[in-house]
Amino acid sequence: MIKSSFTLAFLLIAGFGLAQARAFDPEASVVEIEITKKTYDYRMPWVSRNEQTHKNGILVGQNQILTTADGFSGQYLCRITKGGESRQYTAQIKWIDFYANIAMLDVSEPTFWQDMEPVKLAKKIPQFGDLQIYRWRSGRIEERAAEIIRLYNDTNKMSFLQHLKLSASSEITGAGWAEVVFDGAQLVGLTESASKDNRFNILPAPFIASVIEHNQNADNPGLGNFDFRWMNAKNPALLKSKGLNMPDRGVVVTEVGGRRLADSNLKSGDVILAIEGFEVDSEGKYLDPDYGRLSISGLATRAHSAKDIIFMTIWRDQAMQSIAYNLPRAQFSKSLIPSERYDAPPHYLVAGGLLFQPLDGPLMRALDKNKPILLDYYSDRPPLEGRDGIVLLSTVLPDDYNRGYEDIRYVMVDQINGRAIHKLEDVKAALAQPEEGFHRIQFMPDEATHQIVLDSTEMPNATERILRHYRIPAASSL
Amino acid sequence: MAADPEKSVVQIINYAQGPNWVEPWRFSRVASGLGSGFVIKGNRIMTNAHVVSWSKQLVVHRYQDPKPYLATVEFIGHDCDLAILKVEDEAFFKGIEPLQIGELPAARSSVTTYGYPAGGRQISYTRGVISRIEMQRYAHIYNRSLLTVQTDAAINPGNSGGPAIQDDKVVGVSFQGKPGLENAGFFIPPNIIKHFLEDIEDDKYHGFPDAGISLIKLTNPAFRASLGLPNNSVGARIDRILQPFPKTHELLRVNDVILEVSNQEVGSDGMILYEGNRVHCSVLFDEAQHGEPIALKLWRAGEAIKLELPVFVNSADRISGNQHKEPPYLIVGGLVLTELSMNYLSSLGRNLGESVGSRTHYELFFRSHQSEELARAKPVVISKVLKHPSNVDFGVAAREVVTEVNGQTINSMSDLKAALSNSTDDFHRFRFLSGAEEALHTADAREAEAMLLKQYNIPSAERLEVLHD
Questions:
Q1: With B151 labelled, which of A116, A135, A400, B267 sits at a CA distance of 20 to 30 A?
Q2: Is the minimum CB–CB distance between B225 and chain A shorter than 8 Å?
Q3: What Å distances lie between residue A161 and A300, A306, A316, CA to CA?
């Protein structure tokens, strides 16, 4: 009888504990964000459109509204609603980190902050169990249950950065727009993306915290990135052929400096045995003291900033060596073909009806099925020495001036009037220096067409005429 | 003269077995295909190459004769999609008048096609009008454009290889349709047929030679002026000289303007007037046989010059589909290595770029532009890894191109064979196009090889020489 009473008492206490698990009030912390922005048609780069994105945010401190950076590119008006009210407050972007996919907003009106309660980011996140997701829907808080699938290192949705992520499953639909994810009273993270099979990825709180810390630093060094590729070294024969008799250890470096972020003292063929003292296994995993076995790809962002030095133990030339790897800052612009371009209109130049554009990720994606495979090759190929970028002659707007060239599409420019063309500015400069009354435009050696010639004296008039005819507001956006 | 052309038209049944490009020692299931053909002089049957490709057994039927006769391929021209068959049993030709090859028919004239299209056993006739005559890509191996005649007569599967008749003479061999075009069939014109027949007169088929130039239109007035040419409609520009064509590199230059080919004026769009039809001037290059010269009048450095350009068959062409050679292969330690070819890529799926990635795609289609040596190279790819305890953790999967073995650059299967015999210690070391590297223990590889050949019934660890050419 005594035993039964004790059990009942325990259940009551446990039940009380569950009721208290929701120790924060989502209505006082979660906000709805409306972003109004300009988007561009990269195939007609002078054309802009107006779009709106709705997403979520959460207060993490006084004058600090945390959300993801996704959807902010090109924004010019950001409004926030709180508590399910219809009133919208204009927000300011305090900082935005497209590489990390994190943004911090502020609302200057003091009334916005009344009755609002910031939350704290979890210092450590759970690896198993259930989570709760919150967002505003039609003026009411929607709460959904989620189940953790796994913790892992993966590529950021907005960049090539590799870092810790949490994947979970839930019945929630249309997620991936910074819905806030809690474990009881602790903010575990923000949703980053969702798939059709009810799975979604979460930017975890420790990663968010490190990004906030970086961005609050006036001398923000940015996040670092490993600018090398590696392969597993599971095959014992591979390591033995290098004179290394350490089964199940290490990965082999296959390419260094593909993104051209910095000089590196790693070499192709090196076997990485340890990074920062963490032993690397033959599948490229290390034993993280907080989260267990994870890919080494996340070590560049785990407790590090760009410019930090990371020590690695490698096997090279039949000997164990220790090298200092200078963690380079992630920068899209350093790549031959930048994979992303945020918060900036597309650059272009129209000359004599020829539309020149810098080749980058958004343009490649806009070409979709029309994209020549040669462009994929140039974006994936080993670094091209001596070339900073690639300019594409993406189309020819037909006119009598460019007669005979109307069908030229998506060809990479090598030289104009004998000058190497790396950037759009090079095109402008080269066209200012014609050769004997002509512009000689040479394409990359792999292209099907090698060169074309245009009259240089006629070009300015032709450009004016073509701009009027095709209703293009300006000859260039540089 | 054949008064009843249908008596000279035969039905062909091809029991074919093509190779498996991923597991090159294997062949597909035997499949039967139907086609048509016709008897020409010399007791020969002419048909399409694609009708008799990969044949294991060929059966031909005479007009309204139930008796099957065995036939064999005597000559085959995959580039022009034509083939000659012979029938050992002379009784086959009794009472058959050979058809004569006529001349290029005129546009708007009528033709009748004869053949055995699918859907019945009897000969079928369709009458049509010549719609147009121009250069078209020949779909069989899809490597080049040759003169083609378009008609509105229906050409259906099974019609292939049958004759198009006008005034009792053959004015074409039915060979292909075009997706998206209704009431349009295509046949191979007499010019191509005669070139093929002339080519085999020395008992060897060489093929259609190639000048190795990329000729593009020169209609822009500024480009013409920059070359010192008048602003008229004569002359097309050489934009690129392809590889490997050493004689063309020796005699021609980029930006040479071709004014005449074989004394016929070339328009600024690259076209000539050819028997009343405006077609690309390459039709005149296609008239030459392997090694024969073509008379050219060029505009170079401000003056007109004349020269003779010998043209040759591009024997190094690795992009065209291979329809007659079993793929070479070599198995080492369970890695199956074969030539990177159009056939191999096509066997992986429709989207070539996605099947193998852009670097491999580049290797096959673009790298050859860079030099004669690279144009002659035949890259080697891992087509399969036959798993064995010694290679189960080999970290490079199929579809990767091998660039180096035991320190030697690999540009062909024979390079591979030589490099594998050059191991200086206990390992074979491999480097790949992706930058990856791997190794096999040589003794383990030998052991794996013996076991895998037995396990998978593989007749030999290698086939470097093709079985027939």
A1: B267
A2: yes
A3: 9, 12, 27
The predicted structure's pLDDT at residue B466: 54
Predicted confidence (pLDDT) at residue B333 exceeds the cutoff of 70: yes
CB B412 within 8 A of CB B380: yes
By Cβ distance, the residue of A254, A402, A458 closest to B436 is A254
pTM of the model: 0.92
Span A80-125, pLDDT tens digits = 999 989 899 999 999 999 999 999 999 999 999 999 999 999 999 9
CA distance A222 to B341: 46
Question: What are B112-133's pLDDT values in tens digits?
Answer: 999 999 877 899 999 999 999 9
| Catalytic status, residue B81 | yes
**Average of pLDDT values for B262-272?**
97
Across the A:B interface, residue pairs with CB atoms under 8 Å apart total: 111
Which residues 342-381 on chain B approach chain A with CB closer than 8 angstroms? Answer: 352-353, 357-359, 361-362, 366, 369-370
Distance CA B176, CA B184 (A): 9
**What average pLDDT does chain B have?**
93
Choose, from B36, B50, B55, B268, the residue flagged as catalytic: B50
Q: What residues of B are in contact with residue A376 (Cβ under 8 Å)?
A: 353, 358, 361
Catalytic choice (B36, B55, B78, B81): B81
pLDDT digits (tens, 9 = 90+) for A270-326: 999 999 999 999 999 999 999 999 999 999 998 888 999 999 999 999 999 999 999
Specify the 3-state DSSP secondary structure of A185.
Answer: coil
Distance in Å, alpha carbon of A385 to nearest chain B alpha carbon: 17
**Chain A partners of B440 at a C-beta cutoff of 8 Å?**
237
Q: What value does the CA radius of gyration of chain A take, rounded to a whole number of Å?
A: 27
- For the question of residue B50 being annotated catalytic, the response is yes
pLDDT at residue A21 greater than cutoff 70: no
SS3 for A296?
A: helix
Residue B160, Cβ neighbours under 10 Å: how many? 29
List, in sequence order, every residue forming a beta bridge with B440; answer none if it has no partner: B428
Per the listing, tokens 């499949």 go with: B31
Q: What is the ipTM of this complex?
A: 0.91
Strands annotated E in A421-470? 438-443, 451-455
B226·A450 Cβ contact <8 A: no
In terms of Cβ atoms closer than 10 Å to its own Cβ (0-12, 13-18, 19+), residue A260 is middle
